């Protein structure tokens, strides 16, 4: 007598998967499902890019008083290479130009529910060689703001865990400087939407940031950006770390997570932030204003954040990125020359 109990999949990296399962050897993962009949599926996360995985479906049936697994045939799939370009929405004004080839980097958008709708939260270009997002882009509006209390640092589920820094303890001090786990999109920019705020605590949104810089001039600038919402509907923001400027040969300091972890984390030499506001008529963008900020990565104690305002064009020259590439070309060209905060604020 046979009775159906459940179904699921075994997934592994060996084409000999069925034999390994029968021998009781460990496989990559198992997703067991209890259903009565019909089709079934499973989601497997944190896979490496450009790699072939094998899977076999199984059913648990009762045979002569004991449950046994009955297997299907082994099949395979290959994950996309990290060099495959992910095309992001051309209507999102915050996005820099996508690179022609990702070269081992990840182009990812985190999404969450907001006001009952699936909504983009922020996008990143993540470099696993540096354990950092080279840019983080998002739109900021009043609906994102509230009084949420924060979150706990976790891995980004869209990127393999082994490619994230996962500093579960505070970053170590280097040359007498204490480093914070600095958010690139601040959690305060999403504290009105709980699911979005939690996503700001992905390791891919963290960089080692000088404590006095993070809590001082950089934090002051972040507050000023949020303050723009008192007089404008939306601000488009891109921020990121820079290790070496285009054509530069700056020394990059590093540290290890711990004596038990071989991950070497580099410390940025600079940080940038670029901002955009737009005006529309009949759904089309008619004009825009932008501004950039460029900082060497140090305390800057007592200095005024406005003194570090530069044009977006200048930051593009230093980083090699093309910011706000989805603007109409003539609007983009005019907007990216501005260096005056008051001009931008009052636009």
End-to-end CA span = 77 Å
The coarse silhouette is globular
Q: Please, how many helices?
A: 7
For this structure, the CATH topology of the largest domain is: Extracellular Endonuclease, Chain A
Overall pLDDT level: 86
Beta content? 35-45%
Count the beta strands.
16
Strand order in the sheet with the most strands: 6-7-8-11-14-15-16
Query: Helix and strand succession?
Result: EHEEEEEEEEHEHHEEEEEEHHH
Write down the Rg.
24 Å
| CATH structural architecture of the largest domain | 3-Layer(aba) Sandwich
Q: State the CATH class of the largest domain.
A: Alpha Beta
Q: What is the CATH H-level superfamily of the largest domain? A: Extracellular Endonuclease, subunit A
Q: How many structural units, i.e. domains?
A: 2
Structural category: mainly beta
SSE blueprint:
Elements (H helix, E strand, L loop, with lengths): L1 E11 L4 H6 L6 E5 L18 E12 L2 E6 L3 E4 L27 E9 L2 E11 L4 E10 L37 E5 L10 H6 L6 E5 H4 L2 H11 L6 E9 L11 E5 L2 E6 L3 E12 L2 E13 L12 E2 L1 H8 L9 H7 L5 H5 L2
Antiparallel strand pairs: 1-2, 1-3, 3-4, 3-5, 6-7, 7-8, 8-11, 9-10, 11-14, 12-13, 14-15, 15-16
């Amino acid at each position: 007598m046979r009775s159906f109990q459940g179904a699921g999949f075994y997934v592994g990296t060996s084409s000999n998967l069925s034999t390994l399962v029968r021998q009781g050897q460990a496989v990559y993962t198992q997703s067991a499902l209890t259903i009565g009949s019909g089709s079934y599926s499973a989601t497997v996360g944190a896979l490496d890019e450009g790699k072939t995985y094998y899977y076999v479906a199984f059913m648990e049936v009762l045979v002569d008083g004991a449950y046994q697994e009955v297997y299907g045939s082994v099949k395979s799939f290959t994950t996309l290479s990290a060099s495959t370009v992910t095309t992001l929405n051309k209507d999102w004004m915050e996005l820099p130009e996508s690179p022609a080839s990702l070269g081992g980097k990840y182009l990812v958008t985190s999404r969450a529910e907001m006001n009952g709708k699936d909504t983009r939260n922020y996008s990143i270009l993540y470099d696993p060689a540096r354990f950092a997002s080279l840019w983080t882009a998002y739109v900021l509006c009043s609906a994102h703001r509230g009084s949420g209390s924060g979150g706990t640092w976790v891995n980004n589920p869209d990127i393999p865990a082994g490619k994230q820094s996962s500093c579960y303890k505070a970053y170590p001090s280097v040359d007498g400087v204490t480093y914070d786990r600095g958010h690139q999109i601040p959690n305060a920019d999403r504290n009105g939407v709980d699911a979005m705020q939690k996503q700001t605590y992905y390791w891919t949104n963290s960089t080692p940031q000088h404590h006095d810089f993070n809590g001082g001039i950089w934090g002051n600038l972040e507050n000023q950006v949020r303050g723009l919402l008192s007089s404008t509907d939306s601000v488009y923001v891109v921020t990121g770390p820079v290790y070496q400027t285009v054509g530069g040969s700056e020394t990059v300091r590093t540290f290890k997570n711990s004596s038990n972890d071989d991950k070497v984390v580099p410390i940025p030499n600079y940080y940038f932030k670029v901002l955009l506001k737009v005006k529309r008529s009949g759904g089309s963008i008619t004009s825009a204003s932008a501004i950039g900020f460029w900082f060497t990565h140090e305390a800057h104690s007592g200095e005024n954040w406005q003194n570090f305002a530069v044009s977006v064009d200048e930051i593009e020259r230093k980083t090699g990125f093309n910011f706000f590439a989805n603007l109409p070309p003539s609007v983009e060209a005019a907007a990216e020359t501005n260096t005056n905060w008051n001009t931008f604020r009052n636009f």
